[in-house]
Specification:
single chain, alpha/beta, CBS-domain, globular, 4-stranded mixed beta sheet
Amino acid sequence: MVAVGRTGGSNSRDASLATCDAAQVTRTGAASRRVRDVMLRSPKTLAHDASVRDASALFANPKVVEAVLTDGSAFVGLLARDDLPDEAPGSAPISVYARRDVTRITGSLPVPETLAILDAEGSSRLVVLEDDGVTLAGLVCLDLRRGGFCAG
């Protein structure tokens, strides 16, 4: 069975959060594939105990709009650039700003089901976990035109 989970709340984010200009794998080309075939295997991550200063340094790269928070290899939360208030002190822990209530999927989920979730939520990203439901496996990311996946 494929795990699709959420701890509550909405994952809906502005679809413009996609950062790659052109899909490496198109929607049509991915129709018969699984998430593990189209996900980013090494998304940008931050340790759960990182500071606002650490996150700001990561977000200095304009192509980085979200970071996955981890505790070792375990998924802890998702932090978008706009989740950090401008007035947050640099030494403040980012964990208080991270979203934990995001939709999570596994790498064995078929791409058409994944696209249905992304489209229903108006999202451009989904966290991918290993079958244990805890370990980060990657991140699904749609391109700017939502025509396919920024895979790698």
